[in-house]
C-alpha cells in the first residue's frame, strides 16, 4: 500500500504533490539590520517579519528568509525574476552595488549577478512568458 493511499487501492500518480515553484529561499547574513536595509531599500522588498536572528522579505512571489550565519559571502544560487536586468543593473550601479556579472544573454534569458552587503551573490534574470530552448 502506498503511503499516501490509506484505503490501499490502486492509486495512479499524476502531478499531485510535485513542486510547482520555489516558495522561499534563505540568504545568510551577518547583521539583520544591514540585510533588511539592502533588500527592502535597494530591492523594494516588503519586510514580513524581523527579529534578532532572522527576517523575511517579499516582493511579489519572491520571499527571502535572511538568517544570521557565520558563513556569508556565498553564491546563493538564487535567481530573482525581473522585468529587465538592464534596468536593475542601472539602479544598483547608482547605489554602488558590486557586480559579479554585468547583464549577459544566456539560453534562459538575460541575467546579471551582484553582491549584497554581506558579499552573497544574488542573480537576477529576465522573466519571460515562454522559454525557447
What's the gist of this structure?
The chain has helices at residues 32-42, 85-94; strands at 25-29, 46-50, 54-59, 62-68, 75-82, 99-106, 109-115, 121-126.
What is the SS-derived class?
alpha/beta
Q: Report how far the terminal alpha carbons are from each other.
A: 40 Å
Please identify, by name, the CATH architecture.
Answer: Roll
Low-confidence stretches are none
Write down the overall geometry. Answer: globular
Order of helices and strands: EHEEEEHEEE
Counted up, domains total 1
Largest sheet: 4 strands, mixed
Quantity of strands, as a count: 8
Q: Mean pLDDT across all residues, rounded?
A: 89
CATH homologous superfamily heading: 2,3-Dihydroxybiphenyl 1,2-Dioxygenase, domain 1
β-strand amount: 35-45%
Please identify the top-level CATH class.
Alpha Beta
- Tally the helices: 2
Helix content: 10-25%
**CA-atom Rg in angstroms:** 18 Å
Write structural notes for this entry.
The protein has a four-stranded mixed beta sheet with strand order 1-4-3-2, covered by helices on one side. With 133 residues, it is of the alpha/beta class. It has a single domain (25-126), classed as Roll (2,3-Dihydroxybiphenyl 1,2-Dioxygenase, domain 1). 16% of the residues lie in helices and 39% in strands. It has helices spanning 32-42, 85-94, and strands at 25-29, 46-50, 54-59, 62-68, 75-82, 99-106, 109-115, 121-126. The N and C termini lie far apart (40 Å). It has two helices and eight strands; from the N terminus they run βαββββαβββ. The longest helix is centred in the N-terminal third of the chain and has 11 residues, at 32-42.
Amino acid at each position: 500500500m502506498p503511503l499516501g493511499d490509506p484505503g490501499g487501492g490502486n492509486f495512479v500518480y499524476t502531478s499531485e504533490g510535485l513542486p510547482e515553484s520555489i516558495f522561499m529561499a534563505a540568504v545568510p547574513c551577518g547583521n539583520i539590520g544591514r540585510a533588511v536595509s539592502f533588500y527592502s531599500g535597494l530591492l523594494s522588498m516588503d519586510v514580513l517579519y524581523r527579529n534578532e536572528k532572522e527576517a523575511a522579505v517579499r516582493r511579489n512571489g519572491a520571499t527571502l528568509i535572511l538568517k544570521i550565519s557565520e558563513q556569508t559571502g556565498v553564491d546563493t544560487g538564487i535567481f530573482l525574476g525581473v522585468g529587465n536586468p538592464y534596468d536593475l543593473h542601472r539602479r544598483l550601479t547608482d547605489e554602488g552595488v558590486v557586480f559579479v556579472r554585468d547583464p549577459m544573454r544566456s539560453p534562459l534569458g538575460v541575467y546579471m549577478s551582484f553582491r549584497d552587503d554581506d558579499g552573497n551573490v544574488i542573480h537576477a534574470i529576465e522573466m519571460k512568458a515562454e522559454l525557447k530552448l
